[in-house]
Automatic annotation (TrEMBL), chain A:
Gene that encodes it: LOC108828928
Species this protein is from: Raphanus sativus
Source taxonomy: Eukaryota, Viridiplantae, Streptophyta, Embryophyta, Tracheophyta
PANTHER family: RAN BINDING PROTEIN 9-RELATED
PROSITE patterns: CTLH, LISH
All residue ranges annotated as the CTLH domain in the record: 69-119
InterPro entries given in the database record: CRA_dom, CTLH/CRA, CTLH_C, LisH, Ubq-SigPath_Reg
Pfam families (alphabetical): CTLH, LisH
Protein name: Protein GID8 homolog
TrEMBL record, chain B:
InterPro entries for this protein: B30.2/SPRY, B30.2/SPRY_sf, ConA-like_dom_sf, CRA_dom, CTLH/CRA, CTLH_C, Gid1/RanBPM/SPLA_SPRY, LisH
Domain CTLH: 292-350
Organism: Raphanus sativus (Radish)
Region of interest called Disordered, as start-end residue ranges on this chain: 31-50
The protein, known as: Ran-binding protein M homolog
Any Pfam family: SPRY
Amino acid sequence: MCYSTDNATSKKVITRDEWEKKLNAVKLRKEDMNTLVMNFLVTEGFVEAADKKFLSFPFGETAEIDLATITDRMAVKKAVQNGNVEDAIEKVNDLNPELLFHLHQQRLIELIRQGKTEEALEFAQEELAPRGEENQAFLQELEKTVALLVFEDASNCPVKDLLDISHRLKTASEVNAAILTSQSHEKDNCLDVILVLFYCEQTDPKLPSLLKILIWAQNQLEEKAVYPHINDLSTGLLEDPSE
Amino acid sequence: MTETSSSAAAVNRGDPISQFLDKIRLSSSAATRNTNTMMEEDNEESPTELNTINSAGGFLIVSPDKLSVKYTNTNLHGYDVGVAQANRPAPFKGLTYYFEIFVKDAGVKGNVAIGFTKEGFIMRRQPGWEVNSCGYHGDNGHIYRGKGTGEAFGPTYTTGDTVGAGIDYASQEFFFTKNGAFVGKIPKDIKGHLFPTVGVHSQNEEVSVNFGKKKFVFDVQGYETSVRNKQQMAIENISIPPNIGYGLVKTYLLHYGYEETLDAFNLATKTTVPPIVIAQDNAMDEDDSSYDLHQRKTLRKLVRNGDIDAALANLQDWYPQIVQDDKSVVCFLLHCQKFIELVRVGKLAEGVKYGRLELAKFVGLTKFQDIIEDCFALLVYPKPEESPVGYFLEDSQRELVADAVNAAVLSNKKDVCHLHSRLELLLRQLTVCCLERRSMNGDQGETFRLHHVLNNNSTRR
C-alpha cells in the first residue's frame, strides 16, 4: 500500500478507501460488545433490562458480581452525588469493609517505603490496629505489613505482594485524587473520600470512557495523519477530512 | 442472494453475510494458536546481558557474567572507545523500556556513556557521536544525538553513580535518570530497533549493567504510572454529548433484535427521575433499525436455543427469499448449526444423515470447504467439545448464526445498508486510530485491546 504525504503539513494522507479497508479488517468479538452493553445496563441500574439474559453465554465474573450488588452500589453513588459523603463512607464500609482496610494499609505501606518509620507505627496503631482487633484476617494482614519495616529492600521480601496491591490502589486513588482536586471539593478526610470515589468508579459504565478514548485517539492521530473522522458520535458516520 | 465469488475471502461489497464465514475462520485459527485473544501476542525477548561478540575488543573486556565492562586501553583519540551493546534490542511492546548502569570506577577521565545505538554501530565511538545513536555522557553531563558535539543536558556522573536510560514509546522520547532522579528527556528521532549501549573511554573505567535482574534505582513503574495517569486525566476531561451512551445502547439492541431487553430498557429510561431523553436524531433511521424487530427476536431466540428446524420454518414463512437459494451463506450456517446441535447431543448417526442430505451440496465449493471439513471433524472426537474444533459447540457459534440471520433479515429492507451497529462503527474507528498511530510509531508502545479493557478495571492498557 502506498501512502502519499501531504507536502504542506507533512502528514501522512490516508484515503477513504484505505481507511475503510482498515476498518473492515478489525476483528471485534460480538461477546465483547455484548459485555460492554451489559456493563452499561448493569452500572446504570437497568436491572430489569440486564436481567433479560439476552447474553446467555458467560460474560465474565465481573459482570455477574456487578448484577448482584448493583442496588447497593447505586445507593453509594447516590449518596456521593447528594454530597452525603459520610453516609457513603458508612455504606461502603458496610458493604465492603476490606476496601477501607486496604486503603489504610496502602497508606501505611507508603509511609514505610518513605522511611517514615515512626509515623508509620503511629498510623498503624491508631488506624489499623482497631480494625485488626475486630477481624482476624485484618490482623494477619497488619502483621504482614508491619513486617515490611524489617526488610531493607521491601520489594524482595516475602510480603512484597502487598506492594503490588498497594500499587494498584495507588493508581486508582491518584487518578481519583486528581479528579477530586480538580473539582475543588473541600473534605476533611481526603483519604476516605478517595476510597468512596474509587468504589464509585467501579460503578461507572465503561462505554462513555471508550467514547472519550475514541475522541482522544482521533485527536492524537490527527497530529500525524489526514484521515476520515467520525465527528458525530451519535451517527457514527465517517466524514472525509476537510481540505 | 446468490454467491458469485469463488474465493474464500469475503468481499464486503459483494455478499455482506459472507463475513460471518470469516468469523468462523478466525475462531479456527485462534484455536490452532491455542489462544483466546484476537490479536497476536508478540513474544519479544528483552536484553539480558552484553553482547561479547561485537563489543570493541582490544579496548575493553567484558566480565564473565556479561554484565560488566572495563576499559583496558589508554585512550589516545576519539576512535578507541570501548563500547558494548546488549545482546538484544529493546522490545517494542509496553509503554517504556529501561535499563541502568552503575559506575564502579570512573577511571582516569570519567568518560562513561550510556545510551542507545543501532545494529552495525561503529563500536569504537561513544554512543551519540554517530548518527542514529544517542548518549548521555558522564564527563560533561552532555547529551549527544548523532554528532560529535553535544548539548548541555544534565549533571555529570562518576564513581558510585547509577545512571539509567529509557525509551518512552508513547511520547517517542529518550529519557535519562541519575541515582533514582529523573534527569531529562529528548525526542527520539531514530526509528527501528535500538540496543542499550554503554561506553568507557579512559584507563581503569569500569561499569556494570542492569537489564532488570536487579531492582532499578529509578522507579520506572512509578514513571509509567504517572504517564498513564496524565493520559487518563486528559481523556477524562474530554466532554461527550450527554446521554449518548443510552442512544448507542438503544440502537445496538434494535440492530441485533433484542426486543425484550429493549422494551425493559425503554420502560426504564422513561420512568427514571428525571426521565432520560435519548436524542431522536434520525427518526427514519430508527424505523429502519426497528424493522421486523419481533420476527428478528424470535429467530434469534430459536437459534440461540439450538432450535434450527423452527428457525428454518419461520424463515420459510416470513422471508422465503432468504432461504430460496439453498446454497446461500445463511442456509449453510443454519444447516451447519443443525448438524452441530445433533453432534452436541450425541446423535452422531442422525448427524451424518443430515450432513449427507443438507450439507453435501456445499462440499466442493471453495467458499465453504474449509469450514465444512472442520465441522465434520466433530464426528471424529469422543469428546468434541475438548477438541481443536470444539469452538463449533460453543455459545458463540450460536450467537454468530443468530447474527447472520439477523443481518439477512435486515438487508431485506433496501434502505438498511449498515451491517454494523453504530456502537460497532465507533469501536472499529477507535481500534483503527490506535493501531494506525502505533504503526506510525514503528509499532512501538502499548496496543488498544477492547477485550482487555472490558475485563480490567482500568480503561486503557
